[in-house]
Amino acid sequence: MVALNLHRIDKDVQRCDRNYYYFTTANLEKLRNIMCSYVWDHLEIGYVQGMCDLLAPLMVILDDECLAYSCFTQLMKRMSQNFPNGVAMDTHFAYMRSLIQILDSELFELMHQNGDYTHFYFCYRWFLLDFKRGMLCHRILTFGCVLN
């Protein structure tokens, strides 16, 4: 199990925000260290794809391994319900469905008529990563403050 987690971490670290100036080889190594430490302390959760995406903005803001680890651990207390079995996702989808149905019933009906997209599975990545992959890095830092 540990070997599988390490393999997943190594794979994701190399992909994480590789075009953003902050993520030099040294900072990617810090990212890997933090993820390995987190997984070791939380073996029951393990590593799930996308966790690096949640950690990356914290590293950019804090630029400190210990602080980033501490903040990531706190963030995962809130986000861990999305990992690994996704129990919270059904709740997120239901809330989104209700919001759209109430706030924009025309859109909801259009979604239903054109292939029944009212399950809102297309929102999965948004909820899993707090919209991180859908925005530019500097926008994520601002958006993260609004969400929390």
From TrEMBL:
Matches recorded under InterPro entries: Rab-GAP-TBC_dom, Rab-GAP_TBC_sf
One MF term in the entry's GO annotations: GTPase activator activity
Pfam families tied to this protein: RabGAP-TBC (PF00566)
Domain Rab-GAP TBC positions: 1-148
The organism's place on the tree of life at top rank: Eukaryota
Keyword line: GTPase activation
PANTHER family associated with the record: SMALL G PROTEIN SIGNALING MODULATOR 2, TBC1 DOMAIN FAMILY MEMBER GTPASE-ACTIVATING PROTEIN
Protein name: Rab-GAP TBC domain-containing protein
Organism: Umbra pygmaea
